């Protein structure tokens, strides 16, 4: 509920707007970033915890009616609105029109301001989030009255939040920013990495929006189940070419990249690639978690962390050989979180897959809007998209559901005849033969092998149980011969890592105490030595 | 990057024609087919089931490429339950599970759908044969016959051709002929590779400086 503004706009808010405008005009990046990240959050907490910020027309007077600033302000206004309330159809349409106006201005190439990269990332992220939110909203037909449906029909007909429009904007930003050229040669790539997009005389806005739009395209394509398209749209970025990636500087961007890329690989049965992606991002989150502890994104990061572990559990359950792509530390954490679930999935091919999938998958949307002509009153179409993806995923699981039992039995022998195997597994020989063929077929995965964009790859071995079948010439009995494939234990690396860690600790303990600060007594510093040693 | 036109619904008819031409010319390519399926996703009422069926048939021939699954992920559930898609889906599930007897039965049952691809059965035989060659070192004639759904003179001529061109050898003894398949990396055991701890230079350097002082 909007309180009576006008003179009710708090003074602090007015001052914030004035200074913010001035810093943007003066291209003072550090100040803009501090106001954007810190001051905005503080003012929100103090005045607007449950309501929206003052609408743009009330603050336009403070900034000489600057059109571009009003668009930027409104972007933040709507983002906050979505966070605290359930926006109405009218507000959703207004936000869409704001994004349209803002992107049109930027695409025309007329801006010469510089904005912090984190804001530009948030813009793209929020744009897609609002698209997702609208798709969910329009699917919930059963909650709507006939007039609401009529309004909705009008909105959809005008193309508000239509997927092709969303994709067109993201694609246009990516094309016009020339980001493909910047990433095509290693020297320009390096320059981009060093300057972080901020270059002295130019604007970073279009270029960095282009960069983040590539991630946006990856996400939107994945939301409609087009995984191949998602990876192709991501080019020239590649999750395996990590050297000059800019995404690690913003946690949200990096997590989006690896979560959606890994998920796309998982749905395409490219288990080795998926495991590599999840491994990279889980290691990253573990390293940077502390830095974000006080930020508003902390909860989001933790939730994504849990979802990523669930996806990794699914990947390793379907392809145990992918374990070699994952660090030991992460495997240990995975065992703590999902150990018994994985055990059940691997040993018995049990039906836990849909539970983990449902928890960890993105919120899918249907590309086409639901029929709004009255035939679907009382229906919720949001489940359709999810069910399709789940069905395809479970199809993969079902094909492999007989394999865990087979692998268990095979691991006990070095060679066993087919008739005997059939008796042990309580099935007929033809069924066991089929399963052996399936097992052999699942022993290789399409994997990215250094060439081309993220969607390319060659078949690489992913063997869990190595075997072949021989037929005895005299008796025509088929004999299955199995070899041991032991998991590789990298003792050397493990020990070296821990030795360095201990060396660092000892060096810290032996370091001379820091210089005494005024007022602190030297005696207070003494206990830190022995207690630190006792802790270890 | 993908073209911005990929989601332009006015291109639906043009894309349909392009895909149909590709299939007819034997130059099927998954990216074009996926573009068409993306457009169908936006206009589900205009989906041409027969054309989608042809796409799926082409994808089946290309296993182990994941084309079939990629296509299925873009086809709405209720379409998947209609013919000819549901028949093709059932056939593909048998194929993936290695259940060749059921697979060939399914193929017989939907022969009119598969009529658009005249060499379907031959190409599938080649695919299944490849899988057999990866799994078996020596295979009995009966197993070969049931997996490939051939027997009698056709089977004999196939075996003869492979003996001449691909190095198969046939031995008789016992009740049926046994064919020895050529060796490849899949149908023999890999030697166990001892992977010692290979560490990076900088880790080794820090260890050595520690050991010294």
Question: Would you mind describing this structure in some detail?
Answer:
By secondary structure, chain A is mainly α. Chain A has helices spanning 11-25, 29-47, 56-59, 67-84, 89-107, 117-139, 146-157, 163-176, 179-182, 186-195, 205-223, 227-234, 251-267, 271-288, 298-318, 328-348, 353-360, 382-399, 403-411, 418-425, 429-441, 491-510, 528-535; strands at 415-417, 444-447, 458-461, 466-471, 478-483. In chain A, 61% of the residues lie in helices and 4% in strands. In chain A, helix 4 runs antiparallel to helix 5 and helix 11 (205-223) runs antiparallel to helix 12 (227-234). Chain A has a three-stranded antiparallel sheet. Chain A has four domains: 1-111, no CATH class; 116-396, no CATH class; 403-484, no CATH class; 490-509 and 525-536, no CATH class. The radius of gyration of chain A is 28 Å and the shape is globular. Chain B is mainly alpha-helical. In chain B, 57% of the residues lie in helices and 6% in strands. At the A-B interface, helix 8, helix 12, helix 18, helix 21 and strand 4 of A face helix 2, helix 4, helix 8, strand 1 and helix 9 of B.
Short recap of the structure:
In chain A, 61% of the residues lie in helices and 4% in strands. Chain A has helices spanning 11-25, 29-47, 56-59, 67-84, 89-107, 117-139, 146-157, 163-176, 179-182, 186-195, 205-223, 227-234, 251-267, 271-288, 298-318, 328-348, 353-360, 382-399, 403-411, 418-425, 429-441, 491-510, 528-535, and strands spanning 415-417, 444-447, 458-461, 466-471, 478-483.
Secondary-structure blueprint:
The complex is a heterodimer of chains A (536) and B (213).
Chain A: H1 11-25, H2 29-47, H3 56-59, H4 67-84, H5 89-107, H6 117-139, H7 146-157, H8 163-176, H9 179-182, H10 186-195, H11 205-223, H12 227-234, H13 251-267, H14 271-288, H15 298-318, H16 328-348, H17 353-360, H18 382-399, H19 403-411, E1 415-417, H20 418-425, H21 429-441, E2 444-447, E3 458-461, E4 466-471, E5 478-483, H22 491-510, H23 528-535
Antiparallel strand pairs in A: 1-5, 2-3, 4-5
Helix pairs in contact in A: 1-2, 4-5, 6-11, 8-11, 11-12, 11-13, 12-13, 13-14, 13-15, 14-15, 15-16, 15-17, 17-18, 20-21
Chain B: H1 12-24, H2 30-42, H3 49-61, H4 67-72, H5 77-80, H6 85-96, H7 100-109, H8 120-135, E1 138-140, H9 141-148, H10 152-166, E2 169-173, E3 176-180, H11 201-212
Antiparallel strand pairs in B: 1-3, 2-3
